[in-house]
Amino acid sequence: MPREYIGQNPTAFQRRPHLTKDDAWIREFLKTAKVGHIATSVDGQPFINPTTFWFDEENHQIAFHSNISGRIRSNIEYNPKVTLEASELGKMLPSNVALEFSLQFRSVVVFGTARVVTEPAEARRLLYGLIGKYFPTLQAGEEYREITDKELRATSVYAIKIGEWSGKENWADVADQSDEWKPLDGKWFEYYRNNT
C-alpha cells in the first residue's frame, strides 16, 4: 500500500535515505547545475518549464526569468507555490533483474514561493547574477552592454524564496545485482560504462 503524504512536508519520507545529501552539498550543486525545471500548477493542471537559473545564496532564493507574458508568469501570479528540479545524469547501470536497473544521478528539488521581481535594481542584480553564473568571464559594460530599462520591460524576473529542499546522489559504479538469477555478463557493464 502506498505511503500517505497528505499533510506532510514536501521532503518527508525519503525512499532511499542513504542517498540523501546535506545542505552544503545542495548549495554547491545549485551553484553549478546548468538547467532547472520549474513546476507550477493552476486549477489542478501542472506545468513544467526548463530554464537557466541562479542560486542567490545570500538571500536563499533562486532567480530565473521568462518572457514578459506567458504561462509561467500567469501561473505564478495565480499560484506562487513552485518547485524547481535540477539534475545531472551519469552512466546507465544495468542489472540482472528488472527492479535494479538504474543510472548515476545527482539531483536537487527545491520547494518554495515565487514572486515577480518588480523593483528595477533588484531585477538587474538577479539578472547579472544569472548571466555571471553561465558567462563568468564576461563583464557588463565591457564585453556586453549593461541591462537597459527597455530590456527589463521585456522580461519577467522571478525570485523563488526557498522553503525546503532535498538533494540526492547515486554515483555507484554498478547497480545492485541479484543472486536469484544468473550474473550479468561483464561485457554489459563495460558497454554501458563506455556508451552513456
Write the layout of secondary structure elements.
Blueprint: E1 20-21, H1 23-32, E2 36-42, E3 45-51, E4 54-56, E5 61-67, H2 71-78, E6 81-93, E7 102-116, H3 120-134, H4 149-153, E8 155-170, H5 186-194
Antiparallel strand pairs: 1-8, 2-3, 2-6, 4-5, 5-8, 6-7, 7-8
Key descriptive features of the protein:
alpha+beta; Pnp Oxidase, Chain A; 8 strands; about 200 residues; about 35% strand
Provide an overview of this structure.
Strands 1, 2, 3, 4, 5, 6, 7 and 8 form an eight-stranded antiparallel sheet that branches. 20% of the residues are buried. The protein contains five helices and eight strands, in the order E-H-E-E-E-E-H-E-E-H-H-E-H. The chain has one domain (17-93, 103-174): Electron Transport, Fmn-binding Protein, Chain A (Pnp Oxidase, Chain A), CATH 2.30.110.10. The longest helix has 15 residues, at 120-134. Helix content is 24%, strand content 36%. It is α+β, with helices and mostly antiparallel strands and 196 residues long.
Summary?
This protein has 196 residues and is α+β, with helices and mostly antiparallel strands. The chain contains five helices and eight strands; from the N terminus they run βαββββαββααβα.
